Amino acid sequence: MAPTKQEEYKLKDFKDESPFKLGPAEKFLKEVLDVPFAFQRVDAMLYNTTFDSEVEYLKRSFETLEAACEELRNSRTFLKLLEAVLKTGNRMNVGTNRGDAHAFKLDTLLKLVDIKGTDGKTTLLHFVVQEIIRLEGSCLFGTNQNQTAEKTPISAFQDEVEFRKLGLQVVPGLGGELMNVKKAAAMDSDVLSSEVAKLASGITKITEVLKLNEEIALKESSWRFSESMNGFMKKAEEEIVLLQAQEKAALSLVKEITEYFHGNSAKEEARPFRIFMVVRDFLSILDHVCKEVGKINERTICSSVRPMASNPTLPPVFPGLTGRHHYSSSDDDESISLSA
Fold it and tell me: CA 67 to CA 182: how far, in whole Å?
């Protein structure tokens, strides 16, 4: 709310014997203008007041980024899911030049729901989730496929039900494993960098004010201001150096994790935090699919309990997984093929 230069001149030239009276706001500003570099001092004091909270916010942000990178690299469930997607893509593309991929960009995860089976409802992600919950459930249940194969159809089906119940508790929990990833997805690298730069430039402005203040430090108020700010400056400069180092380390980890999943194509990424956005959006889709899979499994169990057939299984909705067909979405460029 600092006055303009023209307003400053008018207030300074105003004489008390004038027939006009100043309002409370103008009287206050006229007094403030008698303080040397008043508004530069106010800026310095505001910077001082908000410094700790700004630094704490940025530290937490960089810690979240570091934790998000750690989660993506070490989440067992997430890596299992990626492995299942890769294997599924390779099985669907047997006989093609895309049938032996070793990796794929995470953007592919968002396209899994665009690939539908023969029933027109079940997506490729539904199939992947069903496979994972069966395998995870089998591990938790403490049995293997050979043991299951030796059992009667009814007993095997009962085991299958237990597998899926246990496995369905694992996959939806992925969102909990990647909490920091979801937080990181809401961040903007440009905003964080500008906030750090703003704090660093604030130190420069305070230094300029202190130099101006030294010229009139004969007054007690000016001396006290310099003493207070010099003490703060020493602490603030150290904090900013540490913060800049933390920023560099966090952004380096983000770059590494992006290259880990996307290889050399990571260099073309315009938004450094996009990888977190992709995973966050996928987790939202995955949560919805897991709920649908749970309902599908319940319906399957109910329908199979009524005079149970000798082999209580549903016909495959993705026959290409057992044949040599190439499946893709409607857009050839958006193929489910997982390129190496």
Answer: 11
pLDDT tens for each residue of 305-333 = 555 444 445 455 565 554 433 434 334 33
| pLDDT value for 317 | 59
The whole-number mean pLDDT for each consecutive block of 10 residues of the chain, a chain of 340 residues, reads: 85 77 87 85 91 96 97 91 86 72 83 84 86 72 51 53 68 87 95 95 88 69 78 91 96 93 70 92 91 78 54 54 42 38
How far apart (Å, rounded) are the C-alpha atoms in residues 139 and 157? 16
User: Do 253 and 163 share a domain, yes or no?
Assistant: no
Task: Tally the domains of the chain.
Answer: 2
Cross-strand partners of 198 = none
> Are 222 and 163 found together in one domain?
no
> Is 119 within the bounds of a domain?
yes
CA 162/CA 137 separation, integer angstroms: 7
In this structure, are 80 and 157 located in the same domain? yes
Phi, psi for residue 212 in degrees, rounded to 5:
-65, -40
Give the range of the structural domain holding residue 301, as residue numbers without chain letter: 76-93+105-177+277-305
> What residues contact residue 30 under an 8 Å CB cut-off, 6+ apart?
11, 12, 14, 22
pTM for the whole structure? 0.76
pLDDT digits (tens, 9 = 90+) for 118-140: 777 888 898 888 888 877 766 65
